[in-house]
Amino acid sequence: MAQRGTYQRYLNRFGWFCVTPAMVLFSLFMLYPIVSSLYYVTRRWKGMSNTFIGLGNFVRMAHDQVFQGALANNFIFMVIQIPIMIFLALMLAVLLNQGIRRFRGPLRLAIFLPAVTSLVVVSVLFRVLLQQNGMLNNVLLDAHLITTPIGWLNDAFWAKVTIILAMTWRWTGYNMVFFLVGLQSIDTEIYEAAEVDGASKFRQLFSITIPLLMPVILFSLVTSTSGTMQLFDEPNILTWQGGPANATMTAALYIYRQAFFVNADFGYATAMSYVVVLISGIFAIVQMRLLGERKAK
Amino acid sequence: MSMVRNWSIGRVLILVILLGAAAISIFPFIWMIVGMTLNPNDVLKGILVPGPEFASNWNKATTSYNLPVFFFNSLKIALLTVIFGLVVNGLAAYGFEKHQSKARDKVFGVLLLTLIIPQIALVIPMFRMFAFFRLLNTHAAIILPSIMSVFIIFFMRQNFKMFPTEIMEAARVDGASEFGIFVRIVTPSMQATYASAAIYLFLGQWNSYLWPLITILSDEKKTLPIAMASMMSAYTIEYGALMVIVCISVLPVLVLFLAMQKQFVAGLLGSVK
What we know:
The structure holds 2 protein chains of 2 kinds. By secondary structure, chain A is an all-alpha fold. Chain A has helices at residues 2-40, 56-62, 65-99, 104-112, 119-129, 135-142, 156-184, 188-196, 201-229, 233-238, 251-262, 266-296, and strands at 43-46, 49-52. Helix content of chain A is 76%, strand content 3%. Chain A has a two-stranded antiparallel sheet with strand order 1-2. In chain A, helix 2 (56-62) crosses helix 12, helix 3 (65-99) packs across helix 11 (251-262) and helix 5 crosses helix 7 (156-184). By secondary structure, chain B is mostly helical. Helices cover 75% and strands 0% of the residues of chain B. Chain B has helices at 2-6, 9-35, 40-45, 54-64, 67-98, 102-113, 123-132, 139-147, 150-160, 165-173, 178-189, 191-206, 210-215, 224-231, 239-259, 261-269.
């Protein structure tokens, strides 16, 4: 018996040996930042020194219209870009899966390809393509679809469109691949039965395909929402520091600029990041609940 | 003749939609490859016929913009992240899954909780910490925080579930040490999992922008994304040279994807399983 106890202890020690390196790194680069942020959030930086201001940073936030505008932009991108992208990805996945047999592989490969580019590359490419005298304006002018060049990067409205275009180009194929995997797990016999019952293709789509795909759709909703809450690379590079005049400023970009660019106020930036964490958390919980309910059914 | 019968209007429409989507997806790739051979003005116009400027664009990219330095910085940082990341996360995932205990399950629960925390909320204390240790403007500052990944531990743990515990028991009876079992028996049979995790870690680091932007100050330490972004802030942009740098930074990921499509997608899909 004693020997068995020693062996169990050996196994337990080995278990700790396995997880310790990860736990050390986790403590340094996750736990420590979280815990120490409790200190930052109550302070105000001025130059090299800082003072305790309690909840003052949150009061300041309530009057900061740029931050509120930045959060509003995050929401705008969320409610416009994500539905467009999920609709397109779903449509392409269904068409690829059921509409054609020939060229399915190459077409899937081609549509997924944007997902190999980094967000920086996407931003750089679109910034060049969408210059005032750039390719897209030239094509639209030549096709007589517009009479004057569109200010993709320097008009408040079009700059938002630009961000949405770039995000949709980068992520539609990526999400389509998720949907394709989901579609392939649906039993074809269900469609055969529906066919026998005389259900149209359209009816099949809304009564079979979309309900069965719901967990995957919700998953892509969750990941896209959290990605959009963290939007940083595109507004910083593509529309240049959230421009024009903060029209594409996002929360993450504004926090970065407050902490490392404008006036190095780590306290205020930390307080704003709390709000972002809170909002992301609420979204995650609501969406996970939705996902859980679907699974329970 | 049977071909004609099958081409109903619906089918043609479907093919047109899919070909349109494929064309829009591929166009920027063709444009940036052709762009390497054009003068800045033609890059901007979106001309798709190769020109004679490749040598001069390549020269500008490699001499006035230090492309080789940026490339090898990015490569070194990404590869070291992959190597350390596979060892640390693989071992942790194995420990959490195959050597479960109540305490370790609790630790795992805490790990998972942090998945929802966006990076922007962590960078300020981390910046102060690296400043304190005088590690700003070093590649270590980029590598160290990206080794441990809760997502990768979660993903690998899911896959370790499938490894039969009986094989471990059999090896124990044969007198193998626990570490020996992990290194010689479990790891070799989980190659696909390690490949997906490696791709995920590589992409994450190769493409990372926010944290290197905060920590890297000097030109010779820059990675490709930082270099590209700072090129965009110049008063006059050498678009031809820019396209060379863009292509070089996309190339490794493209090769990785084409060579290992299955693991590539599995790496992306890991969390759905």
